[in-house]
């Protein structure tokens, strides 16, 4: 039986095993998908091999670590500098990023944003910024400190620290930080968010499975809001294409995963 897992810290909340194991069960794939709570970033690839994995997903805060440790990185992950899917090919581990395309799929038919604000500058933020750039949609990336913004600025993105930020008009605001994942924190001070969130805005939180403080505030301000459930499913289905060697259609994988994670 082939073994797969998701690495993260924290990881107990992850619904990825539900999604992938439903696919394996329904499609008769002899495989099992579990969780691994990784505490030491430098040991990611070592643990991948020690656990005998054929593939893995990587969540916060290890996506950039995965990029560095894979033997080869393919596709858009090369530009993003972030990997959320690792697949074993022979003795080598290949890295991919399905976050970018998975996220963009969730907007199709709902919104074609003209101006996007991304809160945070980690691996997920990089993926989202890159997919918007590929679709020629202007992006501003806002982060508390300048360190993670530097490589994004060098790639030509508009980046701002909290000290530099003055609220502007955006039709899509994305929380890519962990604020609200395990506490009641907001990704920005409440007065700033109150000035940004209104009926013409879609507030999108990549966190799933709960109404975060960010989304609660968006609702109170009359903005549209969406959690990360559809992004989770879309990126997982794309990952599953790699795990199953493209033997099944993307639509089949999507359908089974939606059954595994009802709204």
Automatic annotation (TrEMBL):
Q: What is its EC number?
A: 1.1.1.25
Which residues bind shikimate per the record?
A: 14-16, 59, 84, 99, 208, 235
Can you name the source organism? Wolinella succinogenes (strain ATCC 29543 / DSM 1740 / CCUG 13145 / JCM 31913 / LMG 7466 / NCTC 11488 / FDC 602W) (Vibrio succinogenes)
Q: Active-site positions, per UniProt?
A: 63 (proton acceptor)
Q: Which PANTHER family match?
A: BIFUNCTIONAL 3-DEHYDROQUINATE DEHYDRATASE_SHIKIMATE DEHYDROGENASE, CHLOROPLASTIC (PTHR21089:SF1), SHIKIMATE DEHYDROGENASE (PTHR21089)
**Could you tell me the keywords of this UniProt record?**
Amino-acid biosynthesis, Aromatic amino acid biosynthesis, NADP, Oxidoreductase
GO:BP terms for this protein? amino acid biosynthetic process; aromatic amino acid family biosynthetic process; chorismate biosynthetic process; shikimate metabolic process
Name the UniProt record assigns to this protein: Shikimate dehydrogenase (NADP(+))
